[in-house]
Amino acid sequence: MSLLALAGQGFGAATLAAKAARILVVGDSLSAEYGLARGTGWVHLMAQKLQQERPGTEVVNASISGDTTSGGRSRLPALLQKHQPSHVVIELGGNDALRGLPQGMTQDNLQTMIRQAKATGAQVLLLGMQMPPNYGPEMTRQFAAMYSQLAKSQGTGLVPFFLQGVGDDAEPLKWFQPDRIHPNEAAQSRLLANVWPQLKKQLK
Q1: CATH code (residue 39)
Q2: Is residue 181 part of a domain?
Q3: What gap in Å lies between CA 116 and CA 137, rounded to an integer?
Q4: What is the pTM of this model?
C-alpha cells in the first residue's frame, strides 16, 4: 500500500473521530435523577441507547436539581468551553414556573443559552415544559408557547412537552414519586421516548 493511501486512511480515521458526537445535557432535577437510583434516569438510558446505535457518542449530564434558567445561563459558558459539545440539550424552565419568576426573564435566559451554544457550532435541542394549571389557562398557554416560539426564532430542535405521556396521563400519579413533582423510575423510558426522535434527527 502506498504512503498516500496510508495517509488517506489515517486522515479518514481522524475525521471520523472528530465527528463523534458529544451531547451536553443542561437541566434540573428532571434530568439529574432526583429521587432515583443512580443510572436509572432518562439521560443515562439515552447514553446506553446511543452506545448501541451510535458507538463512541459521549453524553455529559450537567443537570442540577433545583436549577433555573438563570443558573443554566450562568453555568453554560464554562460547560461549553470544558466539554466542547456537538449538541446541547436544554431542559430548564420548570423551576422558573414553580417559583413564579417572570416569563420574560425565563425566555431571555433560554434565548441567551441557545445563542451561546450555537455560537460554538453546537446544535441545540430545547425541551418544552408547562406551567401548573393553578396559574390560569392564559399563563399556562403563554408559557408553553414560549418554547415553540424560541425554537422557531432561534432555529433549534424542539420537544414541545418533555413530560408528555407522564404529566398529562389519565392517571399521572402512577408516573410520579410521592412528592407528585418528580417522575419515578417507570416514567424515565417515556421521557426518553419523547426526546429520542428529535435528538436522532439532529444526529443525522
Answers
A1: 3.40.50.1110
A2: yes
A3: 32
A4: 0.89
